[in-house]
Amino acid sequence: EWTPESILKQQINYIRNEVKQERVVCALSGGVDSVTAAVLTYRAIGDQLSCIFVNNGLLRKGEAEEVLKSTQKLLGKERVIYVDAGERFISRLRGVLDPEEKRRIIGKAFIEVFEEEAAKLGNITYLLQGTLYPDVIESTSVWGPSARIKTHHNVGGLPERMQLKVLEPLRFLFKDEVRTLAQQLGIPEKIVWRQPFPGPGLAVRIVGEVTPERLEILREMDYIIFQELSKSPVFRKIWQSFGVLVPVRSVGIMGDERTYEYVGVLRAVLSEDGMTADWARLSYDTLDVIARRVVNEVKGIGRMVYDITSKPPATIEWE
Ligand code: XMP
Predict the structure, then answer these.
(1) Is 30 annotated as a binding residue?
(2) Which end of the chain, C or N, has fewer beta carbons within 10 A?
């Protein structure tokens, strides 16, 4: 039987039978999958679970604080270890332009930080992962992993390296089922409905080189986009919406001064699973407010454009 209650019960039993007295570590990202996996596991085995939340310095405005606060509330303060590793990630990205190179650097730095923290815990047997059914299918797809356009599995190889067994209590669920389960577990709406966010974060939303200055500009632009769209009734239909920084300068005029600033892009797409996507038909008024607010309020952006390309042929992210 496939009710939220029965899934919950089954999964709790499954985790208890599998883990027994061993200890489990989890990498929290703040997304609905990892938080649901963690809360579920916490219900099953309590303080045998430890979670590590790595702030890679590439998160959206306010996200790190928010994720930390809400996960500590759900799991208990001592269950969530927070690592502020922004400096390490950002210094390694200096001078790097290639998107796949950025992904490799971020993936490698993540594994390092995670291993260091897990080593401090000692005596861990399992790595908890919020893998969903579509991820399971994708990795055994007939096209094979080489058919992937972008290397998404940033932490691939982690369990083997650390010699950990994998615990994947969500591996038979689809996204909508995870959201139902999350609600059942009392996870706040804000997390339940959080949009997917790529592991390499804002680094793949700044075309070319990532710098602290560009990150700051992108965060402010992205935050205005979030504020305006989250008010709109179409927000829950949107798969992902965000800003992209194109570090090409464009001429403008403000007051009676000539400006010469970066181009900002608004991206908002509808999708079922991220494999294909269509650009969201936002109202002209919404587009207008966003463009005005960004150019007026964000120092560094002089022009806003709306990306009206579907996937395929474009991808959702710009890199
Ligand atoms: P694309 O840009 O390929 O994105 O159309 C499809 C979905 O995957 C997300 N994405 C990533 N997720 N690591 C991730 O964890 C990555 O490197 C990565 N690149 C893209 C993207 O946000 C969208 O949901």
Answers:
(1) yes
(2) N
Query: Has 35 been labeled as part of a binding site?
Result: yes
Q: In angstroms, what is the span from residue 179 Cα to ligand 1's centroid?
A: 20
Angle, vertex CA 138, rays to CA 133 and CA 140, nearest 5? 105
Q: What is the pLDDT of residues 232-254, one digit of tens each?
A: 889 989 999 999 999 999 999 99
What CATH number does the domain located at 206-306 have? 3.30.300.10
* Residue 265 φ then ψ, to 5°: -120, 140
Taking only the tens place, the pLDDT of each residue in 99-133 is 999 999 999 999 999 999 999 999 999 999 999 98
CATH superfamily, domain 4-192, is HUPs (3.40.50.620)
8 A C-beta contact, residue 171 and residue 133: yes
287 in Cβ contact with 306 (< 8 Å): yes
| ipTM rounded to 2 decimals | 0.99
